[in-house]
Design a protein that fits this description.
The chain is an all-alpha fold. It is 67% helix and 0% strand. It has helices at residues 25-35, 37-54, 56-59, 62-67, 93-129, 131-146, 149-159, 164-173, 176-190, 194-201, 206-214, 219-242, 254-261, 270-296. The radius of gyration is 27 Å and the shape is elongated. The protein has a single domain, classed as MetI-like fold.
Amino acid sequence: MAQTNVPEPAIIKEPTGKARKRRGLWADAWLRLRKNTTAVIGMVLLAIILVSCLAAPLYIDYETDVIKVNKQERAKFPAEGKLLGTDELGRDIFARIIWGGRYSLFVGMASVAIAALIGTALGAIAGYYGGKWDSWIMRGLDIFMAIPSMLLMITLVSIMKPTVINLTLAVSVGFIPGKARLIRAQVLKIKDLEYVDAVRALGASDLRVIVSHILPNAVSPIISSFVMSIPGSIMTISGLSFIGLGIQAPDPEWGAMLSSGRAFIRDAWHITAFPGIAIVITIIALTLVGDGLRDALDPRMKD
């Protein structure tokens, strides 16, 4: 009788190591961001700037150091007492730079945030509904884009009183069209995907589909665009202040400090140099962080 070889039952061994837990979008993004050396440098610089400006009332006397005129101490160089010297009216340049940063950073971030909110709403409506809604909204934004943004902001600030709120609103107008076009492109790409059709088939309202299912999947470019727009906003604010349409004296602002010190640039170069350096460092820090976020949030990036 022929002997039949019966295969032995397979022995399944228990895995000795734990299965690797799959990371989510934000965990992956944070890991990539931490590995980006330039982004980390930018975050450290930005953190120092933000903490220094936000904590300014704890170590700077607004009345004495920021706005009080002291003509006996006017145009003193850093080696003559104050950390960064004094300006043409004897005020502490370091204190004014720190206090002025509060205005520049607040208006810069707030104006971009307002533009992002309005632009997201307009872009989502235009992209989701299409047709006449898309035509009306995008043609209106094209008209705004045809006007030089700086000219538009100068006109708005000139009409309104140059307060912090009015300056924030005026600057935000220049960033709305770009944000709306970005969101519209994302919505057009996402709205016809299968999971969106399934949500509609379940009876979800248009508002719920947009807010709960489309925009969350477009959050990466929104965040990247938000951070990358802040340097431009700060430069715009400084430009408006430089020509006298920004933060008004005696409150300090980096662009206004550049403007007031230009008459003394030959004999007291530090009055203009240090506010300019503050602007450059802040712009570099924000740009490094923005580039890092853009790369970290890109789903095509792999470990």
